[in-house]
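Collaboration report, partner site 2.

Our partner group contributed sequences for two proteins of shared interest, and the home lab folded both. The records are reproduced in the order in which they were received, starting with the first partner submission.
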Amino acid sequence: MATVLPSRPSYCPALLAIFLLPELDRSLTVPIKNSNSFLGLLAGLILLTTGCGGPGHDRTEVTGVLTLDGEPLPAGMHIVFTPADSETPIAFADAGAEGRFQVYGEPGKIGMYPGEFTVSVEVPYADEPGPYSGPPELADIKIPPAYQTGKSKVTFTVPDDGTTFDIAMTSK
């Protein structure tokens, strides 16, 4: 069963400033003659520079299994979910045992935001110059071009209530 996870705090920094600034005004050594104008200007500047809220949706849990030609891939494979919308953060997953993965959008935060994503799969350290320096069990894995970062045409729509998304790659 999918789980909807809480998003970032949805408070507005400008509203916080309105409540906190009267205290700041009292602590200033030089009195401000028109405190209301000052507070309004400061709250407006904070609102313009930071905005209110987040992407508008809660993160949602996405899990799955990564396979190549029907066989689960070993732990360590890296999966990237690149959003079609530039406002939505990129999400990642690292395959564990038996190719199972759980998507995270930010370090330490499970889940990703709903929307349309392009999905790509990477062998860690495979694109670095020189001999392969990653885990030995991944050294001979070749990701088909249709799933490679920068070339992938595989898309996935993340629903609001979470889902399972199995990535079944084929080498042919």
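Second partner submission, folded after the first:
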Amino acid sequence: MTTQRPYSIDAPQTARNAGASDAQLSEAAQLPRGRGNHPRHEICSAIETSMSSSLNIARRWDVARWAPIPLRLIVGYGFIAHGYAKLVKGPDVFVGILHAIGIPAPHVMAWMTILVELVGGLAVLLGALVPLVSVPMAAVLLVAIFTVHLPYGFTSIKLMAVTAAGPQFGPPGYETDLLYLACLAALVVGGSGPFAVDRVIANRWPITNRSQHWISAGRKLK
């Protein structure tokens, strides 16, 4: 003995088999569903509606295109702040630090580091030539990791104690250097975002059709 399913679930199909008109099919589809319908379908429908609304809002505001802005601000300001601090303390102090950790030509390397931090930080802040300036900036970070921070582990902030003089911290690890490297990689791969000099350059001097043809030809040869 077979159990007959509620009419409301199979109403459109039954009406179609009976040769009903389009108006009758539409009316049958709008009939309330029977108790055999699982509540899971209503939950899934509500989730799909919510996700669709969120995606529509994201597309309307185009939120993702603004993601590089905070990365540029923190990386650019951070590098400028470190370079400026070296100038305020006196470049000779930084030269002594480089000499103590065994960096060759400490005077030259000290001024090169300060220059990279100031010029590179300003370039990232403005979104100018970011793929180019990211190379020496990443080199400075890698040198800092392998010559200073690596022996002290990952964590950069190591709160050892809180005394009357204030909080006492241990030697910093390479965590902050990795964060800077990750931000630079994200800017190189994803672009500098809005309000960037790189975007102005790309819009003003686009790649010509001939250049695009040469690039396509070179890819085919590989």
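Feedback sent to the partner group on the second submission included the following. Residues 7-64 form one domain. The mean pLDDT is 78.
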